[in-house]
Write a sequence for this structure.
């Protein structure tokens, strides 16, 4: 088990390097292949009326005048040992892990990403708990009482959940709950450590709106999984043993149905930690997703690359956690 | 609650419990309402079985044998008032004086695993893949007995040892996939026996096993039945299995019994053409190779639209001998004149059946 995790972590680092290489190629090399000169690329970072000398400084700082491989190697090296940028006039120190410097905001990429991460983490955590509980519960109820009013109602609601995107529900919910009825504050992020009660109160809307769509999906997944499990031979065996129905369903069938759900949950949750783009945007919360959007809008390449790597890190970690969890849940799976 | 009061809250049979067989099934019908029509999986089945005796139920797929066993245990969800979503049961199932068709789900649940238990075919899918073998056996024990986890585990080890699992104290924590096919079936048997059930139903217990293991499992079941003195029902399409074990044999076709009697009599003097077909399609190693098998032509009938008259008539090679009765009148299950306990559902005159069997069939078996 431990060797498996260690090996996977090493592989994860390798994978991250591959991801960094690809993003690097996309943002620094492809424009040059497309015929842009380093000078033209640097011009995108400065305002009009910049003198050629100033342009030269930016070009050096961004490394546009370097050859591709040395440039990438510098970038990679900075992740592990940090670096100091020198453009001929000023020194900018960036300590490890250095993912570069934003030339829009003049801030280091990594601390910026970390500073907005609590927002994303808050949204993802609360929403994840909500959708897992409600999705699985309503899926089980739907499967057990298949064809009943409950089943039909939950299938209808989950159809709504799947088809209504968060950027549609969010303004609607805010309009009704925050402005018309004044039940909730218009969501703004309050740090958990600052004021937990206020944090939760502000988070209710993002959580429920984001969880709604996921819960709908998980309801359907759970329902299908439970229906499968309930028709399995081992469920019949459990009944033949004389187990009460709640044990047959709640222990034997659910145990089999929930394993794939855990897998999918790990993936979804991991992806969400890399930025709840739509939810953050809909509620104007500045998390990793919003950072990604803003960086893309302003073509802040170092920041885009940082966010991409950050998101990739969580996807890779989520995969690892899922694999370990799967081995713990299913005795037939051997980690190797 | 004592068993005595339980019996009295249910209807007591007219003659009291004493003269009833341990298991007495009367005119059992199990129908399923489907969109295509009413599926009459079991249609008027009656049989008796005493403790310590073995009944073999033989038939093709879809003859109603597995449905019979499932309904004995009450494993079919019952249909609603409109006759949908499950089985429509009628008739009587008397188990040790208690009627099961009219029993509540909770009464049935209390009996399942405790007084009657089932050994399923294909133990790999019949056991839960995520729980250890021991945990699954111990769970069956703990449902019906107020014991600690440690005691239940001890009991599981004891049973695994009894059914011939080597090193039971360590294998008890293994998962089903870590057992071989034969060991899984042994574990399945241990799970069924853990509460000393008085009625044991084995549904195709050896079908998923290879031949050498089949014999071992059959030996084990025979020994265990002697030891526990339970009534045993073996459901199979393999006549070799019932020849080994059964005291009585019931041949089912299209949801009905077509031949029912003592094993020896059914085996040596089968009277129903379908039984001839079953025996004739059984490969025998002690016969010359030139003797070809005699397969039964055609397919099992649709249980929604049974052929009129005798359900077997479209596949029967002898229906010319009885005129139109075969295709118009449903034959009754009647005693052959020889042994009063040997019943056959066939329009052919007894003499014709006898002569046909001795002259045409027996030499090929």
């Amino acid at each position: 088990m431990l060797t498996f995790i260690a090996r996977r972590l090493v592989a994860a680092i390798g994978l991250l390097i591959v991801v960094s290489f690809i993003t690097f190629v996309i943002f620094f090399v492809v424009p040059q292949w497309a015929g842009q000169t380093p000078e033209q690329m640097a011009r995108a970072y400065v305002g009009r009326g910049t003198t050629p000398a100033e342009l030269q400084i930016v070009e050096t700082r961004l490394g546009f005048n370097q050859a591709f491989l040395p440039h990438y190697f510098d970038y990679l090296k900075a992740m592990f040992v940090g670096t100091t940028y020198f453009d001929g006039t000023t020194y900018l120190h960036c300590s490890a892990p250095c993912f570069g410097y934003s030339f829009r905001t003049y801030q280091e990429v990594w601390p910026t990403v970390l500073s907005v991460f609590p927002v994303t983490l808050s949204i993802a955590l609360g929403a994840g708990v909500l959708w897992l509980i409600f999705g699985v519960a309503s899926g089980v109820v739907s499967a057990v009482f298949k064809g009943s009013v409950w089943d039909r109602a939950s299938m209808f609601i989950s159809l709504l959940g799947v088809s209504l995107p968060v950027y549609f529900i969010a303004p609607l919910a805010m309009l009704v709950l925050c402005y018309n009825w004044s039940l909730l504050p218009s969501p703004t992020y309050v740090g958990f450590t600052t004021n937990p009660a206020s944090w939760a109160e502000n988070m209710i809307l993002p959580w429920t709106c984001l969880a709604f769509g996921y819960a709908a999906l998980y309801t359907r997944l759970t329902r299908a999984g439970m229906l499968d499990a309930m028709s399995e031979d081992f469920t019949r065996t459990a009944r033949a043993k004389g187990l009460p129905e709640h044990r047959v369903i709640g222990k034997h069938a659910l145990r089999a149905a929930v394993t794939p759900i855990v897998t999918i949950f790990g993936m979804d949750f991991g992806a969400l930690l890399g930025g709840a783009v739509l939810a953050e945007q809909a509620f104007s919360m500045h998390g990793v997703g919003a950072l990604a959007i803003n960086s893309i809008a302003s073509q802040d390449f170092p920041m885009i690359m940082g966010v991409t790597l950050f998101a990739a890190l969580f996807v890779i970690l989520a995969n690892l956690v899922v694999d370990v969890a799967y081995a713990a849940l299913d005795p037939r799976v051997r980690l190797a | 609650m004592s068993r005595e009061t339980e019996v009295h809250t249910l209807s007591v049979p007219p003659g009291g419990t004493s003269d009833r067989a341990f298991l007495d099934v009367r005119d059992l019908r199990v129908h399923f309402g489907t969109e295509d029509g009413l599926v009459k999986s079991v249609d008027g089945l009656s049989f008796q079985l005493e403790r310590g005796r073995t009944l073999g139920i033989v038939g093709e797929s879809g003859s109603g044998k597995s449905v019979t066993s499932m309904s004995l245990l009450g494993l079919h969800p019952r249909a609603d008032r409109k006759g949908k979503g499950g089985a429509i049961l009628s008739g009587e199932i008397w188990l040790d004086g208690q009627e099961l068709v009219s029993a509540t789900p909770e009464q049935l649940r209390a009996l399942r695993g405790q007084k009657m238990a089932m050994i399923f075919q294909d133990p790999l899918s019949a056991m839960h893949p995520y729980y250890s073998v021991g945990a699954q056996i111990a769970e069956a024990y703990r449902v019906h007995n107020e014991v600690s986890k440690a005691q239940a585990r001890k009991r599981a080890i004891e049973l695994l040892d009894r059914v011939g699992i080597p090193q039971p104290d360590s294998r008890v924590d293994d998962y089903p996939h870590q057992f071989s096919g034969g060991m899984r079936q042994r574990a399945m048997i241990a799970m069924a026996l853990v509460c000393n059930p008085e009625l044991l139903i084995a549904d195709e217990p050896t079908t998923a096993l290879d031949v050498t293991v089949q014999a071992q499992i059959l030996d084990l079941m025979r020994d265990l039945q002697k030891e526990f003195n339970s009534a045993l029902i073996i459901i199979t399409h393999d006549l070799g299995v019932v020849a080994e074990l059964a005291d009585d044999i019931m041949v089912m076709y299209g949801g009905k019994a077509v031949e029912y009697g003592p094993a020896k009599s059914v085996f040596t003097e089968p009277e129903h053409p379908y039984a001839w077909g079953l025996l004739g399609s059984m490969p025998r190693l002690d016969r010359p190779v030139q003797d070809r098998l005699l397969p039964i032509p055609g397919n099992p009938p649709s249980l929604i639209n049974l052929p009129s008259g005798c359900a077997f008539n479209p596949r029967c090679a002898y229906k010319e001998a009885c005129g139109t009765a075969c295709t118009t009148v449903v034959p009754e299950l009647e005693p052959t004149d020889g042994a009063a306990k040997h019943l056959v559902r066939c329009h052919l005159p007894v003499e014709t059946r006898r002569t046909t069997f001795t002259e045409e069939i027996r030499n090929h078996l």
In short: Residues 335 and 343 of chain B are 4 Å apart (CA to CA). The radius of gyration of chain B is 21 Å. Residues 116-196 of chain B form one domain. Residues 1-16 of chain B have pLDDT under 50 and may be disordered.
